[in-house]
Amino acid sequence: MKIGPVLVSIHRSEMNLYHDLLQLSARYVTEPEVHHVAKDLAQWSRNHIAKLAEIATDYGEALQAETSDARASKHAEQHTHSESLGIDNPSGLALLWDLRTIHMTASGIAVQWTMLSQGAKALQQSDLLSVVTQCQPETQRQQTWAQAQIKQLSPQVLSS
C-alpha cells in the first residue's frame, strides 16, 4: 500500500500553501479582499494539516499536526517578487505572481486529493475517504478564489 507517501506529499504541500496564504495576507494588508480571505483560507490548510497528521498514523507515517506561523511572518516583509521585477507597487504585478503561486499550489494539492480519493475507494478505506471528502472541496475553493482574483486583477494590472 502506497498511501503513506501520498499523505506525506499532501501534508508538505498543505504546509506550503498555509504559509504562502499567510504571507499573502501579511503582504497585502491594503487589499482587504486579499488580506482577509487569504487569512481565512490559510486556516483551511491548517485544518487539513491536522487531519492528515491524524490519519497518517494508520498508514505508518508520523506527520506534524500543527504548524507555526513563524515561517510566514518571517518572510512576509520580503517582497521578493517586487524587488526582482523592479516594481514599486506591491499590489500590482507582484500580487499577480503571488496569486499564481497560490493557484498552482492549490491545483497540485487538488490533484493529490483526487489520487488519494481514488486510492481510498479502491482500498475501501472509509476513514481516509472521509478526510478527503472534507478537505478536497476546500482546496478546490482555495484554487478557485486565487484564479478569480487573477482574473479580476489582471486586466487592470497588465494594462497599466
UniProtKB/TrEMBL annotation:
Basic and acidic residues: compositionally biased ranges: 68-82
Protein name from the UniProt record: Ferritin-like metal-binding protein YciE
Region spans: Disordered: 66-85
